[in-house]
Amino acid sequence: MLRGVIFDLDGVIIDSHPAHKLAWKTLFASLGKQFGDHELDFVLEGRKREDILRHFLGEMTLQQIADYGAQKEALFRQCARRLKIVEGVIGFLDQVTNAGLPVAVASSASRARVEYMLRRFELKSRFQSVVTGDDVARGKPDPSIFLLAADQVGITPGDILVCEDAVNGVEAAKIAGMKCLAIASNGRTPLLQQAGADRVVADFTEVRLEELQGLFHSPPGAPAA
């Protein structure tokens, strides 16, 4: 049965994707690299910062990764006015809290950025555990980040619902043996369904916690309602 909920951060709790794309685009432009919006969608798929940098810039030293990462973080914070809460997520969090279920954040972002965004929106106290990309060696779709969050809240993976918006994140949740509610935007529903999401909605206003309990009563391999 449903005993705990793990949330990704970017695109699930905080609508931060426009700010991220602008920050990455600005960084790459400063290095003489130009990428289109479609190419930059790569940065929205739940990958760790070093994986993003290597994808666009090739192999580099650890020092270069740290330096470019710091530059991107500074650019992201300059775009902070673009950040807002995802529609309906606070109400859904209230439902989870009122049900007495432990909640965690599991984000591929650095701890500094995760902590910054949670503080900015006064949300950190809502979560019993916060796991970041700094805490695991491999990013999504490797399931390590979700398994670590599950361990920290003391819940068996099979009793956890993951809220994700990225294909890599959905795949990581399913590999971990967890149910997944996918938040789809800009026509991404088919991609998230193909990745294995158990339910796909545009935002949290379209779903209630008691409806999701039914996902945990479905026999293995049964299609989602």
Q: What does this entry look like structurally?
A:
- The chain is of the alpha/beta class and about 220 residues long.
- It has two domains: about 5-15 and about 85-215, Rossmann fold (3-Layer(aba) Sandwich), CATH 3.40.50; about 15-80, Orthogonal Bundle (DNA polymerase, domain 1), CATH 1.10.150.
- It contains ten helices and eight strands.
- It has helices spanning about 15-30, 35-40, 50-55, 60-80, 90-100, 110-120, 145-155, 165-175, 190-195, 210; strands at about 5, 15, 85, 105, 130, 160-165, 180-185, 200.
- The strands form two sheets. The chain has a six-stranded parallel sheet, with helices on one face. It has a two-stranded antiparallel ribbon with strand order 2-3.
- β4, α6 (about 110-120) and β5 form a beta-alpha-beta unit.
- The model is unreliable at about 220-225 (pLDDT under 50).
Summarize the structure.
The chain is an alpha/beta fold. The chain is 42% helix and 12% strand.
- What characterizes the major β-sheet? 6 strands, parallel
As a whole number of angstroms, the C-alpha radius of gyration is: 17 Å
Structural class by SSE content: alpha/beta
Strand content: 5-15%
List the helices and strands in order: EEHHHHEHEHEHEHEHEH
Low-pLDDT runs of 5+ residues are 220-225
CATH class of the largest domain: Alpha Beta
Total helical segments: 10
> Could you tell me the mean pLDDT?
91
Question: What is the fold named in CATH at topology level of the largest domain?
Answer: Rossmann fold
